Amino acid sequence: MNGGAQGLISGQDILILGGGDWDLCPREPDLVEVLVQAGNRVLCLESPGMRRPELHLHDLRRILFRLGRARRGMRSAGLATWVIAPLTLPFPDSPLARRINTWIQKRAVGRAMKQLGMTRPIVWVAGPIFEPLLDTLQASIVVYDCFDEWTAFPGVDGQLFGRLETQAIRRSHLVLAASTPLLEAKRPLCADIRLLRNGVHEERFRGPLPPEPADLAAIPHPRLGYAGNIYGRLDLEALGRVADARPDWSIVLLGLVRSPVDELARRPNVHVLGHRPKDRVPTYLRHLDLGLVTHRRDPLTDRQDPTKIYEYLAAGLPVVASDLEGLDAFAPWVRIVSVADDLVPAIADELASDDDPRRGARRAEAARHGWTARAVELSSFLREALARAADPTR
């Protein structure tokens, strides 16, 4: 329980029960990058999936991808970071499949920890599907990280996930929430829940403007960008109305395509570039003119803390977003509007009023939300939880 540089915890082994594929997880890799540099070690068990696969190309590709990862065994994911993805049954709503998966995961984690010499790690739970596994682990403390409203995800069994999450929260020594709406929603389950918002590697957005990516070069300005997974929460119809109303604007979509976009993409001023590696995203954003968060409003989107907003601000971009509950904290820096009525005039106004001083102010705001600062907050919470676990009378 030593203190690292800048208040970072060090000397800890951390087992992360991940919220998705490691390369695509929304915040664990960013926090881990800071923590391992301070002298901690991390083992991540990738999520087995939160819903049954469906008969379409995306799910088939994912199954083949997971088969390949399972065959590779434990792999390095950078400094003092290892990832395992054992092959499990893709039926999270089946009690039998969950029992079999728990047995498989227990064996895989045990082998990996023995190989790495890990004992009694901090167990970081980033998804309720792992709740049955907690009984099998010898943890110093259990941390439940509530960074999304899992019960509202499309295709999942909301009642099952609500029950598993309730059990995971109640057996945790520390519970984190990524947004104020999430914190308030989960407070009845845990009075001592802590707010830990998302952040940004703002240093990756500094310096001279890098060369323009080749696939952006032919796209006219102004470029309105959306950077994130492209699926049900994104209001494709609203983007279509913007594209139709202003054919002189270019809409650029960066991210994994998980919903049909053919109807939107048929427009000549809509450009679906797809997924780009995380370390390339800053370059793309710095060559855009405005950032969009045009999400449909539902319990999932209302309770999010979108990482993309921090990235847009770090790039200096004006931001126009849907009127979601969780975005209230961004109100001084983000134009929050109804996508049904105000999207086009709001974008036009933000583009017209943008200038270098405003871009500098946005970058300064983003610098307050760096992942290092978030890891320092997390370190403080972890020290408290470890101390309470060591001395329950505290």
Give a written overview of the molecule.
This protein has helices at 28-37, 57-72, 95-116, 158-170, 180-186, 214-217, 236-245, 262-265, 281-286, 299-302, 307-314, 343-353, 356-367, 371-390; strands at residues 2-3, 9-10, 13-17, 41-45, 75-76, 81-84, 122-125, 141-146, 174-177, 194-195, 223-227, 250-254, 270-274, 290-293, 319-322, 335-337. 43% of the residues are buried. Helix 1 crosses helix 14 and helix 11 (307-314) crosses helix 13. The mean pLDDT is 91. The strands form three sheets. The protein has an eight-stranded mixed beta sheet, sandwiched between helices. Strands 13-12-11-14-15-16 form a six-stranded parallel beta sheet, sandwiched between helices. A two-stranded antiparallel ribbon has the order 1-2. The longest helix has 22 residues, at 95-116. With 394 residues, the chain is of the alpha/beta class. The protein contains 14 helices and 16 strands. It has two domains: 2-199 and 370-390, Glycogen Phosphorylase B (Rossmann fold, 3-Layer(aba) Sandwich); 202-367, Rossmann fold, CATH 3.40.50.
Keywords:
Rossmann fold; alpha/beta; 2 domains; 394 residues; six-stranded parallel beta sheet; eight-stranded mixed beta sheet
